[in-house]
Each structure stands twice: as C-alpha cells, then as structure tokens.
Amino acid sequence: MSATAPARPNAIRRALDSDLWYSFTRSPITVASAIVALICVGGAVLAPWIAPHNPFDLASLQLMDAFKPPAWEMDGDPNYLLGTDDQGRDVLSAIMYGARVSLLVGFCAVLLSVSIGITAGLAAGYMGGTVDAVLMRIADIKLTFPTILIALLIDGVVRAALPREVHDQIALYVVIFAIGISNWPSFARTVRGSTLVERNKEYVQAARVIGVSRARIMVSHVLPNVLGPVLVIATLNLGFAVLAEATLSFLGVGVPPTQPSLGTLIRIGNDFLFSGEWWITIFPGIALILLVLSVNLLGDWLRDALNPKLR
Amino acid sequence: MRNDIMLETINVARHFDVSRPLVQRLLAREGKRVLRAVDGISFAIEKGTTLSLVGESGCGKSTVARLVVGLYGPTHGSVMFDGQDLAQARADSEQRRRMQMIFQDPYASLNPRWRVRDIIAEPIRAFGLTRSPAEIDARVGELLTQVGLSPLDGQKFPHEFSGGQRQRISIARALSSNPEFLVCDEPTSALDVSVQAQILNLMKDLQARLGLTYLFISHNLAVVRQVSDRVGVMYLGRLVELAPAETLFNTPRHPYTRALMEAIPDLEMTGRQRIPVGGEVPSPIDPPSGCPFHPRCPLANDRCVAERPEMIPARGTPETLVACHAVEEGRDRVGEPLVAA
C-alpha cells in the first residue's frame, strides 16, 4: 500500500537482480555450457557471414585441396583450420553450415512437439473425462513406439509416395515432422499434470463464476502457470531432437546431402575414417557432442533452478 | 415467490460418486458409493441481508457455496436466483454479473501470473461493462480505493501483498461487476485474527453502502455472530437449525447447536468445565439412519434412530426452524446443561 509508485527498475536491472541470474552465476559448469552453447548457436546462425569458406559454392571448391589434414598437422593448410573432405570442402565451414541445419530441425521439431503437447495436455487436464482418456491413451500408444522407428516409417512412406525431386525439396520438413510428432507425449503428460493441479485452484473457479469461457480459462489462466516445466523439458528435448536428426541423417534417411547436417557430415566422414582421414568425421562429431551436452547441461540447470524445493 | 428474496434453495442436494473403478468394484462385489455432501437443504436469503452457514469441516458448507453460484449443478432440488432458476440465470450474462464469490485461500484465488489491475478488471472485461482502457483503469483505481488499497497497487503482482491485502484484492475483483449477491466461502479463515476483523468490517461497510446480499460460509461462530442476520447450522449435509442470529446465539435449540455454543471460549466462564461433543462426525458416504446427529446426541431415543426429523418451527421460539424430535416433543431440557456434569 505504498503511497508512491516505486521506480520501476528497467528490464536488465531486474534480470540481473533475479534468483535465476544468481543461481546461474554460481554454477561454473552452467556458465561454461552457456558459453559453449552460445558459440555453437552463434557459429551456426552466423555461418553465411563468418564461415571462412562456402562449402556449397561449387565454383570455389578445389579438388586439389581434397583430404587436407587440420592446419597443425604436417601437410596442413592454414586456410583450412580443421582440414578438408574428399571434395576439398572446408570441414570447419561445413560444420558451421551443418549445425545450422541441425539446430533448425531441432528447434522446429521441439516447437512442433511443444505445440501438440500443450494443446493435448491442456485439453486432457482441464476437460477430463472422455477427452482425457482418449488423448492420454493415444499418448501411451505413441510412447510404445521408438522415435527412430516412427521417423523411419514416416520417411519411408513419404519417400515411396512422392517422386524423388519433390521428396528432396520437402525432406527437411519430413524430418522435422517425424521428430516433432514422436516427442509430444512427454509435454502432454507434464502439462496435463500441472493443469490438473491448477484447474482446482480458486482463481480458476473465480473465472468460472464470472462465466469466462473454457477455452479462455485454459489459455489465459492455466497456460501461463504450467509453462515453467514445459520450458525445462523443451530445453532438454532440443538436445534430444538434434541427436535424433543426426541419427536419422547418419542412417541416410534424414536431410538430403545437398544440405548436410552434422549427422550427414559424420556419415560421409565415416567412409574415410579407416583410410586415415579421421578429421572429416571426428570434428563434426565433437561439434555435435559439445552442442548437445551444453544444451542438456543448461536444461538440467534450468530444471534445478526453477524447482523451489532445491533452492 | 416474494420478490424481496435474492436467493432460495429448495430441498437442494449434491451427491458425488466416489465409487472405485468398475473392475475393482466388480471384483470386490460392492455397489456404487455415493457421498452425500449436501442432502436436501432449503433456505432463503432476503435482499440486503446476510445468511451464514456454520458447521464442522466436511459438513457440506463449501459445497452449498459452489451450488448457489453454479460451479456445481444440484443432484436434485433447485436453486432460485431472484425468482429465476439458477441454470437459466447463469446462461444470461446480465444475471450472472449480479452474483460473485469470494474464496477462502487468498493465496490460491489470485492468478500469480496476472497483475492486480488485470485480475480486478477481468469481470469488467468479461461482462463488457466498459470497453475503453481509460475507463477500466479509473474503475480499477476506484475499486482499489474502496477496499483500502492504493490505485497504484494495480501494477503489482499478487505475491507482493500480504494475505489480508490479497483478500481485499479478491473483494475488489468480486465487486468490479457491480454484483448484488456475494457468496463468501470462509473469507477470513486463512487470515490472522486482527486482519479478520478488518476484512469483516470492510465487508459490513460495503454491504451497508452497496446494499449487498451475502451468503457467508464459516466454521467460526464468533465471526458469524458479527456479520449475520440469520444463521443456519449444518450437520452432515443437512440443516439442523435455521434462526435469526440473535435468537440462535441466545437460545440455541438443536442439541448440536447447543454443543457448539458451549465450545465458544468465553471470558466469564473461564475455568468452567466443558462438556465436549463426544464421538466423530459420521461419514457422509454412509450416514446414520434417522437423525444424522443421533449417534452423538445425549437426547437421542428410538424415534431419532428410526425417523429423519424435518425442519419445523421450534416450541417457544417459533422464529427458529429446527430439525429435532426432542425439541418437537419438548424433552430438550431448555435452560439446563445438555449433559449432567
């Protein structure tokens, strides 16, 4: 009941004052993984501007430069820091462009999972009864199939149904759909659980007394209060989605080779591993590990930091 | 139908199915289990007055509160809001606007993600009372002032307030649609005693100024005495006594009401030996036959076990409606202690 309004600190000051920032700066592992993740994401997003070469510019490729080892090796060329592959493409640039594809697929797949999961979870938790039973049984059935199996199935069907040129064009979307669709039950279950708690709280009943519509209560009252856990799972799932995409690409059913992702690079490099050109597959592998590990560590930290019982 | 009645319930009941899942039930060879939370209650509230319902935990008070605002539908019986069936009234936003509810837990009744001004403005927006943002702001500020807060508090979040202040916000939200009938479900039981008095005074003050009608639910007899015009005593989903507040507190008739009065702490009676009501509240899933109070009643006889008493005017105090065979038969030993010490 203050007589004067307190001066509103600006958004940055408030963020620096928050518990989240405090717990962030207190954990060296988290700071380290944030930096690594930032480098990975930054390198991927800014690839067209900061990458030393453009691996997709066929005109600039020199077959003479094929199979150059990393710069610090004996035959290394300082022009190609991490060496080149069989067609003379710079491995570092290929990784940066590859991470771009990997992250794009990962983000979009998680976004798809989150959208389906939140919708299904809110509906199941808030409406209950038959809607709940049907949606959750579908989620249970979905959980009995491994992600890779579903992705292979979807990819196989699309491949068989569409001509090759069309398929290559939409391959990226097929992968996003296949990974996204296989992951929504974990979001749906979390959201449903939190919704069951929130729907019985008195602020929801107050809205019902006023006569606010069911859809509006779900979206404007319940949703903001169940988003915390979703954010955590989404972060953890981003790493999973990137890995799933890499697995699919490694198996050769993911994104087309014209747009190689990290998984594709690892698969291509795998062919040369035993003939001595180890850098073609090892460096994309390390990049994948760093990216997924740092994102997962960030997710773990977020989970602990947002859990009031662990404060 | 008299048109000065704001709300009337006619033999209203709400049962809950608490059976185990079908397969388990078949295996255990048991029938459906029905919890009779509210089991046939009739009362009427005149406009501008306060009716309180008191009773122990689990006697169905809160279920009644949810029944009369339409959060639950009645299993049988009916609720009439200003002469209109409640379900019909709820379908009409103009009628719905006239009823509001204040909740028990000030920490759960405000959405933690909403600013106070949005919480208070929600009914204004939902009923389309005014569309212009400036008018909404002005109205929210006015409401905050009315409940003793500052208009500047509107931009804060609920967690920045104490329990008593939150309850004031809750009241401001309830008032924002200009209601005539407020259902208050234990609005003070989560608050400190000193804050309780402030909130009660605020509510009485608002009633006097705005001509509000209250249905007040509480387990606290002292609070009830302060705010009520009429008081209903509930036991196991039924009303056992309904009387004007003064009559009820001066000459309680039902043995259960008398036992409750004995339990009120009282300065003059310090040191007196108290006779507690023996036994536990029976389960509303399997209520006792006849009068639900008979297993704990010192006046019970065979008729009380066999026959359910109806609400009838009591001998001696005809303004009291009481459901008790002992009172009807005149064997309730008025003026003597209920149990010989």
Notes on the protein architecture:
The complex is a heterodimer of chains A (about 300) and B (about 350). Helices cover about 70% and strands about 0% of the residues of chain A. The two termini of chain A are about 30 Å apart. With about 300 residues, chain A is an all-alpha fold. Chain A has a domain at about 85-195 and about 225-310: MetI-like (MetI-like fold, Orthogonal Bundle), CATH 1.10.3720. Chain A contains 13 helices and no strands. Chain B is of the alpha/beta class. Chain B has 13 helices and 12 strands. In chain B, helix 8 (about 195-210) links the parallel strand 7 (about 180-185) and strand 8 (about 215-220). Chain B is globular, with a radius of gyration of 22 Å. The model of chain B has no long low-confidence stretch (mean pLDDT about 90). The interface between A and B is medium-sized, with 19 and 33 residues.
Describe how the helices and strands are arranged.
The complex is a heterodimer of chains A (311) and B (341).
Chain A lengths: L10 H7 L1 H7 L2 H18 L1 H4 L40 H37 L1 H15 L3 H15 L2 H18 L2 H16 L2 H9 L3 H38 L10 H9 L8 H28 L5
Helix pairs in contact in A: 2-13, 3-5, 3-13, 5-6, 5-8, 5-9, 5-11, 5-12, 5-13, 6-9, 7-8, 8-11, 9-11, 10-11, 11-12, 11-13, 12-13
Chain B lengths: L4 E13 L4 H7 L5 E13 L3 E5 L6 H8 L7 E6 L2 E2 H6 L1 H4 L2 E4 L13 H11 L6 H14 L16 H13 L5 E5 L7 H18 L2 E6 L2 H7 L2 E6 L2 E7 H6 L4 H8 L39 H5 L5 E2 L7 E2 L2 H5 L12
Parallel strand pairs in B: 3-8, 3-9, 6-7, 7-8
Antiparallel strand pairs in B: 1-2, 1-4, 4-5, 9-10, 10-12, 11-12
Can you tag this structure with a few keywords?
heterodimer; A: 311 residues; mainly alpha; MetI-like fold; 13 helices; disordered N terminus; B: 341 residues; alpha/beta; eight-stranded mixed β-sheet; four-stranded antiparallel β-sheet; 12 strands; transmembrane (chain A); cell membrane (chain A); MetI-like (chain A); OppC_N (chain A); transport (chain A)
